[in-house]
Fold:
Amino acid sequence: AECRDMGIPVLPPDINHSVDHFAVEGESIRFGLGAVKNVGRGLIRSMVAKRNADGPFQSLEDFIERMGDELNKRAVENFIKCGAMDCFGYHRSELLNVYDSMMDSVASSRKKNLEGQMGLFGMLSEDDTAAQIPIPRLAELKKADLMAMEKETTGIYLSGHPLEELTPALKRKR
Structure:
C-alpha cells in the first residue's frame, strides 16, 4: 500500500520473472518468491538457474517436467495460489484443478523411464507425460477467494484488498 501511495508499482510474483528476493524491475518492484510460504530458497534458485539456462517456462507441464524431483505439491499449489503461474494464461481455478494429477503423471512417467519399463504402446508414443492431461476450462474464482489465497500464501493481499471498495467512503468521512 505504501508503494502504491508513492506511485511505485509492485509487480506480482511470477515464475518467469521473480527471483528469491524482492527486486527492482524497470520502475517497479517485483515480488520475490522467497516470500511465498512452503517454497524453499534452494528450489527458487534452481528454478531461476533453469529459467536462465533454458528460457522461460512455457506451461505448467513444462515447469513440472523441467523442475522434476525438486518440486513438491505444496510448492506448486502455493505458486498457483499466489498468482506466480498466472503467466500461463489459465485461471488459478483451472491450474488448481489439474496440478496434482499432472505432477503424478510426470512422476509416473519419469519412474517408468528410469526403470526401463517401456511396453509396446510406450514405444509407439513419443511422449506419455503430463502433456496428455488437458487443463479444463473453468470459471475463475471470486476476487475475494483469490485475495484470500494470496494472503494465505504470502501473508499479504497482492491483487487488491477486501476494504478497497470502502476507500472512497472512508476518504469522504475524513
